Amino acid sequence: MAGIFPRLLFISILLFLLIHLPAGGPADIYAADPSASAESIERIRELWGLDRPLPVQYGQWLTNVARGNWGNSYAERRPVTAIVAERFVNTLWLTAATVVLALVLAVALGVAGAVSDSRFVKSLIEGFAVLGISIPTFWSGTLVILVFAVYLDLIPSGGMATIGRPFSLTDRLWHLLAPAAVLGTLYIAQWSRYLQAGLSEVLREDYIRTAKAKGLSRVTFTLRHGLPNVAIPFITVVGLEAPRLLSGAMVTEVVFSWPGMGRLLTSALLSRDYPVVMGTLMLFVLIVVVANLLTDLAYGLADPRVRYQ
């Protein structure tokens, strides 16, 4: 726990340097305007503090962050905290729905593949896993929109709500279904394949044979004796997928026009909106660090024998 803050400090320094490394900056966007003079662009740089040395800029940013001030967006002229908070809620909707959907289907497919005696069922699940891992998110998302939204008109083509309608949970979930399914396909494939392999190995152990000899049903010894023994490695795999889930959400949000943090980061990078980029990336990093911490704590829930000093 104590190592979180030095880690965040080091990452913030690295991100700050990488963001400012490319030539140009936010003020250079105004250079495309023929009426903008060099003096006015320089005044903008001075107003935003971009004319100072990088160590000074970073020190000012870190001081403001310690006070709870993440700065103002160059593009929207609003506090970064307000902008990120709005988009974070939308991303939370998408990632939460994705994780729930992926966990339910991955556990169902993994257990079915491990306990089934049918070679056809095993091949079908393995084929789905290979297909889910192989197809890029941007391509599958575009294909889903083209087939189910354009040709069949069964789902919304994008956004997170129907324009002109008041908030409705049903309408929100209806818009959430397609992006969550596309984003979750990769994780359903990976997690089900991992769970199937681990559970198949566990079900060949001697204590499982003993449970079978005692007359326990297949469902009972699988859920009571099999799953708990693959829970810890499975939790590790799920917990470490947090960075990939966030990066996948960024692509999915752009494809489905979902107004979340991924889409915000994309637009901020294109406009060189440094405060928004830093605020969004640091929140991503914080989420990853917290997810790893929660993964460690989840070990004790999955196996009471695990204790931390």
- Going by helix content, strand content and strand pairing, the class is mainly alpha
The tally of domains stands at 2
**Poorly predicted runs:** none
Seen as an oligomer or otherwise, the chain set is single chain
Counting DSSP E segments of at least 2 residues, the number of strands comes to 0
Helix content: over 70%
CATH T-level fold name of the largest domain: MetI-like fold
CATH architectural type of the largest domain: Orthogonal Bundle
Which overall shape is indicated by the principal axes computed on the Cα atoms? elongated
> Approximately how much beta-strand content do the residues carry?
under 5%
CATH class of the largest domain: Mainly Alpha
Largest sheet: none
Rounded Rg: 24 Å
So how many helices?
12
- State the fourth-level CATH superfamily of the largest domain: MetI-like
CA(first)-CA(last) distance: 12 Å
Mean pLDDT score, rounded? 81
Order of helical and strand elements: HHHHHHHHHHHH
